[in-house]
Amino acid sequence: MESIYAALLLHKAGKSITDGAIEKVLKAAGADIDNSQITKLVAGLKEANIDDIISSAAAAPVMAAPVGGAAPATAEVKEEEKEEEEEEPTGIGSLF
After folding, report:
1. Domain ranges of the chain
2. Which of 31, 41, 60, 95 suits a disulfide with 26, CB 3.0-4.6 Å?
3. Which CATH number does 1-54 carry?
């Protein structure tokens, strides 16, 4: 996750997103470095438009909390959890 933050920081600063640049940001922050994750991230971002990714993430619907502290039915919760488990992320989403 830290490598994604580093890539976003580099993008915001107008710098090239490279393995070395991400490593430098992570070292400066004192974060652990996972070279395989960094390599996957850089490869995934080469053809991606980061601004489009950010805007689509900002437009994603957010589920509201139940009003009045009411909890959803147990069967509904189990079914929702099962649906969430079935979805496998692809592309950049697979890094999370």
Report:
1. 1-54
2. 31
3. 1.10.10.1410
